[in-house]
Design a protein that fits this description.
alpha+beta, six-stranded antiparallel β-barrel, six-stranded antiparallel β-sheet, 32% helix
Length: 734
């Protein structure tokens, strides 16, 4: 390798490339150093983590899954985030207790961090060897400055600790070096970690004092500790530019590369851009890399091939396109190529990270619908995906070369990852949808996927996203009470909506007061007799007076006396409440409802908890920064909760969620796992609430009873209905 070089190409380049800088919490200074292990994992000292967090240096207490800022100073200055995943506490050298302040040596003291994203290319794991006495080793300050190296010799090594002596010239191992690798240039390997230094006692210096002596943990000791906590790297793990090349594949790439980049000036231009993307230094003397060297790089550097293809594709004719397709096909035989270029991968992760934080169920839903016959990665089989799991899910989806649907002859199949992205885009809508579709279109064009194939999959995704529970059976119920009605009895009118938007009133005696059980049986009868019943979950919208919003309508059981299985309305239907009387007390209520309902897919939810002091502050928010907000989650004790709820409805908020069972002490937040939450696709909220109710009714340990107002501006209220003509008879009524 001569034309492409890693930064700082010297005998210690491998170690400096793997050097990690651990920053303090305020990013103001370097807390210490570390070293890249493999995958997304980094190794440092526990006391470096403590220093970064502002804790006592040798505290043995596990700080938990904290997140630290780190960087690879020799390759990329930008900070990345890494989460603590393994902790080996500092412990006294001769017993397992805590380390006393002022101790000269100790054991343990290791921490493993995991990056939120893949490390920058071409970082790769270093080679490790056992430490032995007499080795000349080099250490660096965590900041990674080239001049900060400190050369020392292993003077004594007992297999656990190595004592290191330095000459009175150059740099000395000092604060900020801890956790970094001890690199043996002669062996081309790291042999341990910098741990501490032996300092002279306070007072005047004496010639008998120890000078420039430090110490480190041997690789033998480090490896043993990592194995004990299950964090030892796979001996065969490789990353970045450390993938083994398949000579046969490399040789087969030479032909297409000669055709595509036979002109040296063109090859030099594309290779320079490729090197910059990979973080490699390239020659600027007007020469071009040999085709064989370029082929080797494409086989060994992660994402090098799709990154080169990204720059080549726009200017190719049909002959060049065929050669690029051949090159990409060969890339699938290597471990390094991958599907996406560096820029494509980075862009997709940024988009999906944001969307996953807003809707953790988006990717699992999209993948399940887009790839119904594929065994999905484990991370996508759950209902929710954590943002830190997005890179792993994307990497696994990249390994599927294409879907099984037909494509125009001789053109590549649409990769499974792109199909999932199309379904996720269709589900999000708005600007996010357009951004994902633009990304997908660019990648598909670069891969040579026919436009009609992408268009067909995009149409499939649009049809899937158009699904709506509201298109099924819809039943409207109006509850009222007369002053002399018995307690817990209500008068009930019921309508069933037809597909054309008209309503059929049921042929029942609506003026008789009924119990909750009787009303539940009536609703079940009407919903069960509607056309299309059983094909989807029916929507039951119950219109109530302002003082009846607390009614446990969802718990009213409509099971008959001979039925074994209970049938609460909230388990079998999308049971929602409506309260038009409150909104009608506002002159702008109707317009507010229409505006907010239209914005329900793009507006962010509002959490009305203890941070909102009273209804005045809530009104101010709904008039200003949350003018289009369609979803509000109301929390707090009953009195305050009722006030905030009524003001939400008066200002036309169509979707309000609260826990009607919460007492004066308030309740657990309604976000998962304590409640269904408001995040995610709006139209799926009634189904989420139904699922939660099923689980909550079965478990007495779950006291939460979610109530949901759902004022669909497109669904008429009882006094607005177009009623069926009585002359048509009663055969249309139920």
């Amino acid at each position: 390798m001569g034309w492409f070089k890693a930064p700082g190409a010297d005998p210690s380049a491998d170690a400096r490339g793997a050097l990690v800088r651990v920053l303090s919490a305020d990013r103001a200074h370097t807390a210490g150093a570390g070293v890249y292990l493999a995958g997304r994992r980094l190794l440092t000292c526990a006391h470096v983590v403590n220093a970064a967090l502002g804790l006592r240096m040798l505290s043995p207490r596990d700080p938990g899954a904290v997140t630290l800022d780190v960087s690879f100073p020799a390759l990329a200055a930008g900070a990345r985030q890494a989460r603590l995943v393994a902790w080996v506490p500092p412990r006294a050298a001769h017993h397992q207790g805590p380390v006393a302040d002022g101790s000269l040596e100790w054991g343990g003291d290791l921490a493993v961090l995991e990056l939120d994203e893949e490390p920058p290319p071409p970082v790769g794991p270093v080679r490790w060897l056992d430490m032995r006495a007499g080795q000349l080793v080099r250490a660096w300050y965590g900041g990674g400055q080239p001049f900060s190296y400190a050369d020392v010799q292993v003077g004594s090594c007992d297999g656990r600790i190595g004592y290191l002596d330095g000459q009175l010239s150059g740099a000395a191992v000092d604060e900020g070096y801890s956790g970094g690798p001890l690199w043996s240039p002669a062996d081309g390997a790291a042999v341990g970690l910098v741990m501490g230094r032996i300092t002279a006692p306070d007072g005047a210096f004496h010639t008998q004092h120890t000078v420039r002596r430090s110490w480190g943990l041997t690789w033998q000791s480090v490896r043993q500790e990592l194995v004990r906590v299950g964090a030892a790297p796979d001996p065969g793990a490789r990353a970045g530019g450390a993938v083994e090349a398949d000579d046969s594949v490399r040789d087969m790439m030479v032909g297409p590369l000669h055709i595509l980049l036979g002109e040296p000036t063109v090859r030099a231009a594309h290779s320079t851009a490729l090197g910059a993307a990979l973080g490699l230094h390239t020659r600027a003397d007007g020469t071009a890399p040999p085709v064989e060297e370029l082929a080797h790089l494409l086989c060994t550097a992660e994402r090098a091939l799709p990154t080169l293809a990204e720059s080549l594709a726009p200017s190719l004719d049909s002959r060049g396109r065929a050669q690029l397709d051949r090159l990409l096909a060969l890339g699938r035989l290597t471990d390094a190529a991958g599907l996406l270029s560096i820029a494509e991968h980075r862009g997709l992760l940024a988009k999906l990270d944001h969307l996953t934080r807003q809707d953790p169920g988006l990717l699992p839903r999209a993948a399940t619908a887009a790839l119904p016959y594929v065994e999905l990665p484990r991370s996508l089989t759950a209902a929710r995906l954590a943002p830190e799991d997005v890179p792993g899910a994307v990497r696994e989806l990249e390994e599927w070369p294409g879907d099984g649907s037909p494509v125009p002859e001789e053109t590549p199949r649409l990769p499974a990852l792109l199909r999932v992205v199309e379904y996720a885009a269709a589900e999000t809508g708005g600007i996010a949808c357009q951004a994902l579709q633009d990304w997908s279109g660019r990648v598909a064009a670069r891969l040579g996927v026919h436009a009609s194939a992408l268009g067909e999959r995009r149409a499939d995704a649009a049809r899937w996203s158009d699904r709506s529970a509201g298109t099924g059976v819809r039943v409207l119920v109006e509850l009222s009470r007369h002053p002399k009605d018995p307690a817990d009895h209500y008068r009930c009118s019921v309508w069933r909506m037809r597909a054309d938007g008209t309503a059929a009133r049921t042929a029942v005696e609506a003026e008789r007061p009924r119990t909750g059980r009787e009303i539940a049986r009536l609703v079940r009868e009407v919903a069960g007799g509607a056309e299309g019943a059983g094909q989807s979950v029916a929507l039951v919208a119950v219109s109530v007076a302002p003082d009846a919003l607390h009614l446990p309508v969802d718990e009213w059981d409509g099971a008959g006396p001979d039925e074994y299985v209970p049938a609460p309305l909230g388990e079998d239907f999308h049971l929602v409440l409506r309260c038009p009387q409150i909104r009608r007390r506002s002159r702008t209520g109707a317009g507010d409802l229409k505006r907010r309902w239209s914005a329900r897919h793009r507006s962010e939810p509002l959490i009305a908890d203890h941070r909102i002091s009273d209804e005045t502050e809530l009104v101010a928010l709904l008039k200003t920064t949350h003018r289009d907000t369609a979803r509000v989650l109301v929390e707090g004790p009953p009195g305050r909760r009722t006030q905030l709820l009524r003001f939400c409805l008066a200002m036309g908020v169509p979707i309000v969620l609260w826990d009607r069972a919460a007492g004066e002490g308030g309740a657990a937040p309604l976000d998962p796992p304590h409640g269904p939450g408001l995040h995610g696709p709006v139209d799926e909220l009634p189904e989420k609430v139904r699922h939660f109710r099923v689980r909550a009714y079965m478990d007495p340990q779950v006291p939460v009873r979610p109530a949901l107002v759902w004022e669909d501006a497109e669904l008429p209220l009882p006094d607005e209905l177009q009623l069926a003509d009585p002359s048509e008879g009663t055969d249309h009524a139920i």
